[in-house]
Design brief:
The chain is α+β, with helices and mostly antiparallel strands. Helix content is 26%, strand content 35%. A hairpin with a 2-residue loop joins strand 9 and strand 10. It starts with a helix and ends in a 5-residue tail after the last strand.
Length: 196
């Protein structure tokens, strides 16, 4: 009787662990999430938390809840161009880049951004306009003073892009894309000093 009881407990534990593993695999690693995560390095992934998609970046210390209004994301990518650059493509719409720079900023942030956008073209230069991009405003988003820059390129393929800059404890962020609404939505849904 005692031997049977031990065997039943072992079988029960194996079943519970197996069911838990299958549930986790289907919940966290379904085909859609595996597809999004295949181009991301260790430390960055899209996962589901409480039924919502979340971009977790442990390399650059941020987490962003993907807005429900986006109805998902189609593509993600990561490049180690600056300190870290993630690309998120929202359902067949041109995406948003999230660049992280771990620079110590010793001056007023607006002055820093004014110098930053006037840098010489070269390696990593992201502004495409023949004119110097302009600061079009400063907006308070989730308690952060976010500086907004507009870059206009006469090339129709590129067109107008918006760059959003804000400072954190470890440096500054640069989010850019064509839709101001989408960029602001990511900032509103993000924790940019995230540590697990």
């Amino acid at each position: 009787m005692n031997k049977r009881f031990v065997i039943l407990i072992i079988v029960f534990l194996i079943l519970v662990i197996g069911i838990g593993f299958i549930f986790y695999f289907l919940w966290q690693g379904g085909p859609e999430l595996r597809s999004l995560n295949k181009s991301l390095p260790e430390g960055i992934k899209v996962e589901k938390r409480e039924g919502k998609r979340v971009l977790v970046n442990k390399i650059d210390n941020y987490i962003i809840n993907i807005p429900e209004g986006w109805r998902g994301i189609e593509k993600t990518d990561y490049k180690r161009v600056y300190d870290g650059s993630v690309y998120i493509n929202k359902n067949n719409v041109r995406g948003i880049f999230i660049n992280v720079y771990h620079n110590e900023i010793k001056k007023d942030f607006k002055s820093f951004v004014e110098e930053w956008i006037r840098q010489e073209p070269g390696y990593g230069y992201i502004f495409t306009s023949p004119e110097i991009p302009e600061i079009i405003g400063i907006k308070k988003i989730r308690g952060k003073d976010v500086i907004i820059v507009k870059d206009v390129n006469p090339e129709p393929k590129i067109g107008i892009r918006f760059f959003y800059y804000f400072k954190t404890d470890s440096g500054f962020y640069e989010l850019y894309g064509e839709s101001q609404e989408d960029i602001e939505c990511l900032i509103l849904n993000g924790n940019f000093n995230y540590e697990e």
